[in-house]
Design brief:
Blueprint lengths: L8 H24 L2 H5 L9 H19 L8 H4 L4 H21 L8 E5 L5 E5 H25 L10 H7 L1 H4 L3
Antiparallel strand pairs: 1-2
Helix pairs in contact: 1-5, 1-6, 3-5, 3-6
Length: about 180
């Protein structure tokens, strides 16, 4: 039985562009907060804005490593000791890397298996399109957490990073036909 792939390269490119757009907005928020807000301990999935941002950037970087078959990929979230600016540069690079990867990755490979390692040990495998979809969903989920965390530390200069907002703002360039 042939599997039917419902997503195509244009759609995946649009999602990669959306992810980069939303990440850039989140990064602008992070550029506006002070070190106290960045490291303030907050009850959430992660203990601070810093830890949440590290997690998002780490996930983007590690999936790119898995897709590119990097032999010893490093989970940034386990080893990052840099500054906020260092993390922002890594995040920007991963975001751009995701767009470039999707642009160059052949659509006929979307159903190929991707082997990956779990952060706490063990391996898994999913089709590429599933891992890509997971990454986009994962980043969206944790950017939403950033909004809540930022509000809790008193930052209120927030704007929408919703996919519908992205479509509205880029309507002429993202029409899928």
């Amino acid at each position: 039985m042939k599997k039917i792939m419902t997503a195509d390269k244009k759609y995946f490119s649009t999602l990669a562009n959306y992810n980069s757009w939303a990440n850039n907005i989140a990064i602008e928020w992070l550029n506006q907060i002070n070190d106290g807000q960045w490291e303030q301990v907050i009850v959430s999935s992660f203990t601070s804005i810093k830890q949440t941002a590290i997690h998002i950037a780490s996930a983007e970087k590690i999936w790119l490593d898995f897709w590119n078959h990097i032999p010893q990929p490093v989970f940034l979230s386990a080893e990052f000791n840099g500054s906020k600016n260092d993390l922002i540069e890594i995040w920007k690079s991963s975001s751009a890397g995701l767009k470039n990867f999707i642009s160059a990755y052949p659509e006929e490979n979307y159903q190929q298996q991707v082997t990956f390692k779990y952060p706490r040990g063990g391996e898994g495998s999913m089709e590429f399109w599933q891992t890509f979809s997971h990454l986009i969903n994962h980043c969206t989920y944790h950017r939403g957490q950033l909004v809540t965390l930022l509000r809790q530390v008193g930052f209120t200069k927030l704007s929408s990073t919703d996919l519908a907002t992205y479509y509205r703002m880029t309507q002429k360039t993202t029409t899928l036909t």
